[in-house]
Amino acid sequence: MRILGIETSCDDTGAAIYDSDQGLIVHRLASQIDLHNQYGGVVPELAARDHIRTLLPLVDSLINDPANRGNKLDAVAYTAGPGLAGALLVGASLGKSLARSWEIPAIGVHHMEGHLLAPMLEDNPPDFPFLALLVSGGHTLLVDVKSAGNYRVLGQSLDDAAGEAFDKTAKMLGLGYPGGPAIANAAVNGDSRRFVFPRPMTNRPGLDFSFSGLKTHTSTIARQHKLDQQTTADIALAFELAVVDTLKIKCFRALSQTRRKRLIVAGGVGANLRLRSTLHEMAGQIDTELFYPRPEFCTDNGAMIAYAGYFRLTLGRPISADHSFDVFPRWSLEDI
Ligand code: KG4
Ligand code: ZN
Question: Is 113 in the pocket of ligand 1 (CB under 6 A)?
Answer without folding.
Answer: no
